[in-house]
Design a protein that fits this description.
- The strands form three sheets. Strands 2-1-3-12-11-4-5-10-8-9 form a ten-stranded mixed β-sheet, sandwiched between helices. Strands 6-7 form a two-stranded antiparallel ribbon. Strands 13-14 form a two-stranded parallel ribbon.
- It has two domains: 203 residues, Isopropylmalate Dehydrogenase, CATH 3.40.718.10; 136 residues, Isopropylmalate Dehydrogenase, CATH 3.40.718.
- The radius of gyration is 20 Å and the shape is globular.
- It contains twelve helices and 14 strands.
- The protein is 40% helix and 18% strand.
- Helix 1 runs parallel beside helix 12.
- It is of the alpha/beta class.
- The structure holds nicotinamide-adenine-dinucleotide, 3-isopropylmalic acid (IPM) and manganese (II) ion (MN).
- The site of manganese (II) ion has 3 residues, from helix 9.
Length: 355
Amino acid sequence: MPNVVVLPGDGIGQEITPEAIKVLKAVLKDSSLKLEFENYLIGGAAIDEAGKALPDDTLEAALAADAVLLGSVGGPKWDTLPAQQRPELGGLLAIRKALSLFANIRPVKMLPMLVEASTLRPEVVKNVDLVVLRELTGGLYFGEKGRKTNPPSAYDTLIYSDEEIRRIVDLGFQMARQRCGKLCSVDKANVLESSRFWREITLDVAKKYPEVELTHMYVDNAAMQLVRYPTQFDVIVTENMFGDILTDLASMLMGSIGMISSASLNGKKGLYEPAHGSAPDIAGKNIANPLATILSGALMLRYSFDLEDEAKLIERAVESVLEQGYRTTDLAKPGDKVLGTREMGDAVVAALGKK
Ligand code: NAD
Ligand code: IPM
Ligand code: MN
């Protein structure tokens, strides 16, 4: 039986991952494929129980698993640890690197019934349907970093190899070809040498994809264009940190950060997680939106297990619950039926039953 390693992590990660598993089990009930789920520690929870953010047995299990489902890591309790030991660097970045998950896909699709939930005007966000392809194992996050004395200073290095850029941009072209045929490469080539290199390689890869319309955009302009006229975008491909920032921003094009799912892939294995964090401000209250994690579960079925029908069933069940007016607090406006985290998971399971 294929197995999924589940890493709930910290804060709301503990609350949202069980909801995704509940939905995955429900959708696979009548399917020939069954999945085995096994929980392991990561992040602050792992520091507290096992002494480090990515324990050896977690890494071994993740390396051996067919797929990984992750909640979120981090929280104030561990913020003062040395950087490399923290949940973020020692846990999340470490597992992304160890599994070579270089391609992070973050779909940004506005569902019609959530248009009113966005803080942006309906005519701006309706029909938004884009994907951000974020490079995940290079760039500013993984370059040399350090501190110097006399005078005190600190540095992080943004470095990309030819091969690292080529493989992510190539995937961007493939995705654009399967969608609306438009790829926007986001960089800061007016300032950064690494971005000029990124552009050169992108132009070289483009020769293989004459049917895809390639544009380049500076990251500052991209942030502005995403809220000004988001439907101009189809696929965006970009450097690790630019993609991090742009996807939190883009999540509001869907109404809430609680809606943005993600798949981190390396061609063989996938790790699936919401793009948001552990939300310490709402953790433990049963109010977090579990839909980004539930939708990440759908991405897992699609990309790791080739179960397109079941992935769609989950996506339709989520839409059906929202169509009935059910909302978690982050999406709610007066008159909506507000559900807690667990109740939203139950509602999605119930909607699956009514397919
Ligand atoms: P965050 O995404 O956790 O929260 C930002 C805001 O969005 C908060 O107000 C939070 O309540 C809200 N929010 C986030 N997810 C939500 C959901 N599902 N439903 C409803 N509201 C939601 O970002 P932050 O506050 O900057 O970071 C908190 C911690 O999470 C930090 O330790 C950070 O390093 C970590 N983090 C982890 C991940 C990850 O594990 N992938 C991602 C981002 C941040
Ligand atoms: C994300 C998060 C992480 C990132 C942090 C927690 C290391 O913000 O997955 O978007 O920056 O990649
Ligand atoms: Mn982020």
